[in-house]
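Input sequence (370 aa), recorded before submission:
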Amino acid sequence: MGYFMLVEQYNALNKENSNSILDKYFATKTLQRLKGKGLFCGMDYVSIPELIPREYYSRYDHSKNVGYTAWKLSEDLKVALAGAFHDVGSLSFAHVNSFKKGDALKQESDELSVREILLQDEELLSYLHDDHISIDDVVSASKYPLIDKKIPALCLDRADGILATCLFFAKTHSFEEIRSLYYMLAYFGNLNGMVCDMHNERLRNFNGEMVLVENYDADYEDFFRAINVYSKILLTKEDRYIMEVLGLTLKYYEDLGIINENDLFFLSEQEIIFKILDSKYGDVLKDVLSLERVFYAKNLDQGLVLVSKPKIRQANPLVFGQMTVCEIDGISGDFYRELNDIYEDILLTDKPITGNLSSNTVRVLSRYKR
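Predicted structure, token format:
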């Protein structure tokens, strides 16, 4: 594949048969700013081979694809725009900022207010006015279960994260495989006419949710394997360690006054990296981005030793077939086996980890350990 070829193909897949009315919103400064924010939280700049995405996939790409697919599944402009805007508060390096603030388990400390950001964009507000859309209709993705719904449900934000992770970050799937999984995505606003187990609390209290529908090229377990890839890569010692260390590194440079939260909002990730490396204190970031090996620590004096317990990202999607809706674990034996693998990975998050950082970097960043 040529440079950005996969991203272009994947974006085109999400856009096909969508509504071109969304395009003007994606041209605004609010959405354009997200081109400088990668979906994978700074992994585009690290040196650990298994963490380097095969192509750069930005928060802008992610926002467009959630918005375009939301339109196709809902045909509701409010829902599509709520999906398009859901990440406009993202800072550079995204969830690294939660690790920086000691919020790795929830990862809710790395975005600014969607409402406040939209109110600063007169062009975008004029489009909302022209389209008779209230700002209250688009500032909270959680209003729409298609866009945002708590685990274990599947929602578009989570679905794009899964597919993009498999295609670009974990590098486990081809575009053709991802396309087959993408065509499994459907949205049910209600369960009228469906056969389902009313003893299941989730189905009894159903209020709209994404559902998987099998096709000729992919089945339910194919999609669950993708969910498993998504979950497991974020639990690897390599991903956990570099996220923690990048968080400590950002804190260090903020304390020095080299960067601040305004920079993290307005500047691209590359601009922030260049700004830091251009300072006389750039050696620490250079060393962190050059880190190549992460391993379990034998003792607490073995470099910068950390215990990292991140947010568990999982899903147990509803599936549909022959007018029946149920949870995937009702039909999949592999679900339980692979879920047990996830539990084994979660247990490993209790073990201290370290990496081949220089003694100077260890000394500087150790003061920020919690």
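Checked by second reader. The radius of gyration is 21 Å.
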